[in-house]
Amino acid sequence: STQTKGTRKMNAQSANSQLMATAAKPPGLLQQVGMAGSAAVITVSFIHPIDVIKTRIQISAEYGKLGMFGTASRVVGNEGVLALWKGVNAAWLREASYTSLRLGLYEPCKVAFGCTTPETTTFLKKFAAGSAAGALGSLAGNPFDVLKTKMMASEGGQASIMKTGSELLKNQGIGGFYRGIDSNIARAMVLNGTKMAVYDQAKGYVVAVSGWERKSLLTTFFSAVCAGFFMTCTVSPFDMIRTRLMNQPSDAKIYNNAVDCMVKIATQEGPLTFWRGFLPIWSRFAPTTTLQLVIFEQLRALMGMESL
């Protein structure tokens, strides 16, 4: 009887150990990408109106003079409140492809760049990992980025994603969906490199100064806000060039490539034009970065993963 009880106890302990091992097993690559995509789609549903306002300001000097609140007022007054969500379906597809990869692939890229111990994990390696993940995500998401930009910039009634895509395909072929790919990849590399490296690095500083845990919601929040500001500083010029390239008329070509666009903007409109719309870009990046990373970190915790 005593031996039987001992055997049962050992079996129960063995089962518990197996259960704990299974629960602690980290999610695979697809699960990480899926969590990142979920966080991104949820976030963009709330942040999209700021993106619409930012795009209008970037493509039009008239909207630029009105500023963020003036542009919002004109868009709502002329086109209705729903105009602030123009292109949101394309934005969902973009986030499900682009952001899921650039956020979900960051940690695997860190390992690939040799970030295996605190001693080997430098800021430059974090930036390189973020840039690599951003470039891969950009290749997947560029077609939806083009559609989203054109739909947000269209004035009047609600733009259809199918109609916008059909017109683009008819006038420019498949290549039209990869318009601005050079500037978009450069933007994605700078954006994600800055975002993930600053966020990762800022976490260490926040923990050291505050004493909070690395997985704390407050640590995530303040680190993400910091990353959002520096992203705006580095990405604004690339964002301007990308928006101009993607929003060219379907039947015309104003800029030959990213370099041509950069030169024409600088010579014809002045260098400060690259930072036109800084406030709406920051207003979009700050909450977007914060919400994305907070939701992503919470999903990682639910899946038994450590904090970034």
From TrEMBL:
Transmembrane segments: 217-238
PROSITE patterns xrefs: SOLCAR
GO cellular component: membrane
Membrane association type: Multi-pass membrane protein
Domain of life: Eukaryota
Protein localization: Membrane
InterPro entries the UniProt entry points to: MCP_dom_sf, MCP_transmembrane, Mito_Metabolite_Transporter
UniProt cross-references to Pfam families, sorted A to Z: Mito_carr
Keywords associated with the record: Membrane, Repeat, Transmembrane, Transmembrane helix, Transport
Solcar repeats: 27-112, 121-205, 215-302
Family membership noted in the UniProt record: Belongs to the mitochondrial carrier (TC 2.A.29) family.
Name of the protein in question: Mitochondrial carrier protein
Organism listed in the record: Cyclophora tenuis
